[in-house]
Amino acid sequence: MTRAQPESSATDAGGGPPSAPAPAVRGDAPDLARDTARDAVDRIYREEWTRIVATLIRATRDWDLAEDAAADAFVRAAERWPVEGVPDNPGAWLTTVARNRALDVLRRRGVEIDKVKEWMVMDELLRPGAPTDPADLAAASISASGSATAEIDDRLRLIFTCAHPALPIEARVALTLRTVGGLETPEIARAFLVPEATMAQRLVRAKRKIRNAGIPYRVPEGDELRRRLSGVLAVLMLVHNEGYLASSGDRLLRLDLQEEAIRLARLVARLMPDEPEAAGLLALLLLQHARSAARVDAEGELVPLDAQDRTTWNAAEIAEGLAVLDRLDQLDRLPVTGRAGRPDAERTGAAAGPYRLQAEIQREHARAAHPDDTDWAAIVRCYDDLLALTPSPVIELNRAVAVGLAGHPRAGLDALDLLAASGTLDRYHLLPAAQADLLRRLGRADVAADRYRQAIELAPTEPERRFLERRLAELARGVD
Question: pTM, whole model, 2 decimals?
Answer without folding.
Answer: 0.72
